[in-house]
């Protein structure tokens, strides 16, 4: 049996997996296992373990026991340690554990997934592929907070996330966008987590997420950009503990917090409650404001690309965001927008004739990036 690459993307409530052939040309299978989130802080290790066990059993049954050449993992934060994918060893695990406070929603499950695979296959090559890595090219100034400079030297700076998704979109820009739309592009990755990335010639120049994946846009359960004074108020005036503030900002805010209905955009679109509409409107206003705020770093804008669960599938969200950007000369083709993401096409042009900017929907593929990066480290030919 030919060797395959297994990719794992362990979230706080689901495990996404895929299997690629030895040449990383074909996705042989893929899926998502949901598991119940434990009410405690950390994701339920047992639930994750069961999900990884199921994936391992599935891969072994379908492809054979010793067919896996390597397991590649999405890891959201590499901190100042890593800006390239790396083979896992003891030191890597120790370093990643020190970063857990910077990505409490993601890193515990991602590290657990590595450890569970180790128990199954002690000698298996495992590669960790970082969301932060793509943003190593950011303009240096964009990585700064206006804090005392010693903090920057200690690593308190803007890293940026969703890098595997942006890297995939970057590979698509050159081949699918009209030539006049390729140089200065803002990509909107709108999923449960959401961010924007300004790219010059396919490289990250600046992005809306920062030190952690809390910054920037309104998200499913995360607040996005927030006046730091609110955090002080919650601790000092309302007596909230740090742990309570962390839960509030990461898990009880965003679309869920504002709507009181759901963190899921599909449910908000179905709801007739005014709070659900208000949450969607805030999501879109913030996205448009943040998008406009990235334009100076590019000194212009040729195109906008939407991706991620919401970006690829919610025509109403794309319309609302682009309505706020009409002053830039953005004009959508109503029909193209309404059908984008519904069919099998992975790339859709949705701007109208005469639009000053190109607007596209591209189905992202983080798994392909993980499989390619893993293959490059394990069999680099
Ligand atoms: N057809 C759809 N219409 C509107 N929103 C959608 C649709 N399909 C998925 N979504 C939204 O996409 C979000 C999940 O995005 P996804 O990128 O899959 O998340 P994750 O960050 O977990 O990878 C949810 O808010 C979901 O409601
Ligand atoms: C970094 C991040 O927010 O990831 P996700 O969208 O998968 O939650
Ligand atoms: Mg995601």
Automatic annotation (TrEMBL):
<keyword id="KW-0479">Metal-binding</keyword>
<feature type="binding site">
    <location>
        <position position="9"/>
    </location>
    <ligand>
        <name>Mg(2+)</name>
    </ligand>
</feature>
<comment type="function">
    <text>Catalyzes the formation of acetyl phosphate from acetate and ATP. Can also catalyze the reverse reaction.</text>
</comment>
<dbReference type="Pfam" id="PF00871">
    <property type="entry name" value="Acetate_kinase"/>
</dbReference>
<feature type="site" description="Transition state stabilizer">
    <location>
        <position position="162"/>
    </location>
</feature>
<keyword id="KW-0808">Transferase</keyword>
<keyword id="KW-0067">ATP-binding</keyword>
<keyword id="KW-0963">Cytoplasm</keyword>
<keyword id="KW-0547">Nucleotide-binding</keyword>
<dbReference type="GO" id="GO:0006085">
    <property type="term" value="P:acetyl-CoA biosynthetic process"/>
</dbReference>
<feature type="binding site">
    <location>
        <position position="16"/>
    </location>
    <ligand>
        <name>ATP</name>
    </ligand>
</feature>
<dbReference type="GO" id="GO:0006083">
    <property type="term" value="P:acetate metabolic process"/>
</dbReference>
<dbReference type="InterPro" id="IPR023865">
    <property type="entry name" value="Aliphatic_acid_kinase_CS"/>
</dbReference>
<dbReference type="GO" id="GO:0005524">
    <property type="term" value="F:ATP binding"/>
</dbReference>
<feature type="binding site">
    <location>
        <position position="366"/>
    </location>
    <ligand>
        <name>Mg(2+)</name>
    </ligand>
</feature>
<dbReference type="InterPro" id="IPR000890">
    <property type="entry name" value="Aliphatic_acid_kin_short-chain"/>
</dbReference>
<feature type="binding site">
    <location>
        <begin position="264"/>
        <end position="266"/>
    </location>
    <ligand>
        <name>ATP</name>
    </ligand>
</feature>
<comment type="similarity">
    <text>Belongs to the acetokinase family.</text>
</comment>
<keyword id="KW-0418">Kinase</keyword>
<protein>
    <recommendedName>
        <fullName>Acetate kinase</fullName>
        <ecNumber>2.7.2.1</ecNumber>
    </recommendedName>
</protein>
<feature type="site" description="Transition state stabilizer">
    <location>
        <position position="222"/>
    </location>
</feature>
<dbReference type="GO" id="GO:0000287">
    <property type="term" value="F:magnesium ion binding"/>
</dbReference>
<dbReference type="InterPro" id="IPR043129">
    <property type="entry name" value="ATPase_NBD"/>
</dbReference>
<keyword id="KW-0460">Magnesium</keyword>
<dbReference type="InterPro" id="IPR004372">
    <property type="entry name" value="Ac/propionate_kinase"/>
</dbReference>
<feature type="binding site">
    <location>
        <position position="74"/>
    </location>
    <ligand>
        <name>substrate</name>
    </ligand>
</feature>
<comment type="subunit">
    <text>Homodimer.</text>
</comment>
<feature type="binding site">
    <location>
        <begin position="309"/>
        <end position="313"/>
    </location>
    <ligand>
        <name>ATP</name>
    </ligand>
</feature>
<dbReference type="GO" id="GO:0005829">
    <property type="term" value="C:cytosol"/>
</dbReference>
<comment type="pathway">
    <text>Metabolic intermediate biosynthesis; acetyl-CoA biosynthesis; acetyl-CoA from acetate: step 1/2.</text>
</comment>
<feature type="active site" description="Proton donor/acceptor">
    <location>
        <position position="131"/>
    </location>
</feature>
<dbReference type="GO" id="GO:0008776">
    <property type="term" value="F:acetate kinase activity"/>
</dbReference>
<feature type="binding site">
    <location>
        <begin position="189"/>
        <end position="193"/>
    </location>
    <ligand>
        <name>ATP</name>
    </ligand>
</feature>
């Amino acid at each position: 049996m030919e060797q395959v690459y297994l990719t794992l993307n362990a979230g706080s409530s689901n495990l996404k997996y895929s299997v690629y052939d030895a040449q990383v040309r074909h996705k042989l299978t893929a899926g998502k296992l949901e598991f119940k989130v434990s009410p405690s802080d950390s994701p339920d290790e047992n639930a994750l373990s069961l999900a990884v066990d199921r994936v391992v059993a599935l891969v072994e049954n379908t492809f054979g026991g010793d067919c896996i050449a390597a397991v590649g993992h999405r890891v959201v934060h590499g901190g100042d340690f890593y800006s390239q994918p790396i083979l896992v060893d003891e030191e890597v695990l120790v370093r990643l554990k020190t970063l857990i406070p910077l990505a409490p929603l993601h890193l515990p499950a991602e590290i657990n997934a590595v450890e569970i695979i180790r128990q199954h296959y002690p000698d298996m090559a495992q590669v960790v592929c970082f969301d932060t890595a793509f943003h190593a090219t950011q303009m240096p100034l964009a990585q700064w907070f206006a804090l005392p400079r010693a903090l920057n030297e200690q690593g308190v700076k803007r890293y940026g996330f969703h890098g595997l998704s942006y890297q995939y979109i970057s590979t698509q820009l050159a081949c699918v966008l009209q030539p006049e739309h390729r140089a200065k592009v803002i990509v909107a990755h709108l999923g449960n987590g959401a961010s924007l990335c300004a790219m010059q010639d396919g490289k990250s120049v600046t992005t809306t997420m920062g030190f952690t994946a809390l910054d920037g846009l309104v998200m499913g359960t995360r607040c996005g950009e927030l006046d730091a004074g609110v955090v002080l108020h919650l601790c000092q005036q309302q007596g909230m503990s740090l742990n309570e503030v962390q839960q509030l900002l990461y898990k009880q805010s965003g679309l869920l917090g504002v709507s009181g209905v759901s963190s899921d955009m599909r449910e908000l679109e179905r709801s007739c409650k005014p709070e659900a509409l208000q949450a969607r409107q805030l999501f879109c206003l913030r996205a448009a404001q943040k998008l406009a705020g990235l334009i100076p770093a590019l000194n212009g804008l040729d195109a906008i690309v939407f991706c991620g669960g919401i970006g690829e599938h919610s025509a109403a969200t794309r319309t609302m965001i682009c309505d706020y950007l009409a002053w830039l000369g953005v004009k959508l083709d109503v029909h193209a927008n309404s059908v984008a993401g519904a069919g099998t096409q992975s790339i859709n042009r949705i701007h109208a004739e005469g639009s000053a900017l190109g607007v596209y929907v591209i189905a992202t593929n983080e798994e392909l990036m993980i499989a390619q990066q893993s293959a490059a480290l394990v069999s680099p030919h």
